[in-house]
Amino acid sequence: MTQMLTFHLKYGQKVSEQLTKIGKNMTYQLGLFLRDRYDGFIKNVFDTEEIQVISTDYDRTLMSAECVMAAFYRPDDETKFRKDLEWVPTPIHTAPEGDDVLLNVDAACPRISSEVSKLDQIPEIQDFNEKNEELYKFVSEQAGFNETSSLSALITFDAIYIERLYNLTIPKWAVKTYNEMNIVSNFFFELLSYTDELKRLRGGPLLKMITENMTNKSRGELPKRKMNVYSAHDSTVSIILNSMGVYNSIRPPYSSTVMIELHQIGKDYFVKIYYQNDTNLVNSPHELTIPGCSFECPLQDWTELLNDVIPNDWEKECHDIEPLQNQSKYLMLMIRNG
């Protein structure tokens, strides 16, 4: 059986947008989990032809990828370059914001901001914001924001969430509104890919690469490649899951991981999706099934079912004012940051 892996990791937290000790430990533990899961399939020694690691250009995502790989690869006597160091370097590839057309695409795609501005015209979103208007006002005032908005509530909740994670004392008003703010936070992650256009623009590039990698693998064009690892953000996790139609509408927790595997049985190829959203890595990953297929989804069916969210020419769509109509449509590891 041959597997091609595509993951999405989502990792530990930040202070001043840096990875904390808890985050480093979470992602290191994730690396151990992945080594246990794929041991025997992926070599214990790093092979540049077997695996590729790509990250967004943020300290915390780069460090998360490094922590995962530090646990995933442990040197043997032959590969160890210092007797007192149980570590081998693994290359992490990245592109600066604005040039990233895979994982952090907003700056490179002007039309995304145009599509986001249209969300306030959707009745369901208008109703949600009206229902939570008093919450936005209350949280904004308590947190010291000069203006009232759902974004200020989201930023505040993110800080409160981190303080709670560290067992710090949070304000009484935050305890009182915690569950309400959590609902707003969950809804925000849905909004990132709420429409088909946002799924195509934000999730399409990565899904296209995943699909092309698996198709090329099935054709024998990537004979040695076995794993692609993507270190990105909680937003990236939610967008990819939602674009595939398997998102549970709950903000991805730290160290959450999407594993997309290509399996070969005889001459046939099948795709399986697993979602590990247990930060403590105690429970088994969830098996996810894209709408219209089985859990073991034939690669050809996978490609056809995701065709609507994969643009033929992403850069052209990113610079078109109006949505393109009737476009032909079409293991990765992602590490989430906050």
TrEMBL record:
Record flagged with keyword Secreted = no
Record field: catalytic activity? a phosphate monoester + H2O = an alcohol + phosphate
- Molecular functions per Gene Ontology: acid phosphatase activity
Work out whether the entry's keyword set contains rRNA-binding: no
The Swiss-Prot or TrEMBL record describes its family as follows: Belongs to the histidine acid phosphatase family.
PANTHER family the UniProt entry points to: ACID PHOSPHATASE-RELATED, PROSTATIC ACID PHOSPHATASE
What does UniProt list as this organism's lineage?
Answer: Eukaryota, Metazoa, Ecdysozoa, Arthropoda, Crustacea
* Protein's recorded name: acid phosphatase
Q: Which gene name does the record give?
A: acpt_0
| Annotated Gene3D superfamilies | Phosphoglycerate mutase-like (3.40.50.1240)
**Keywords in UniProt for this one?**
Disulfide bond, Glycoprotein, Hydrolase, Signal
What are the EC numbers? 3.1.3.2
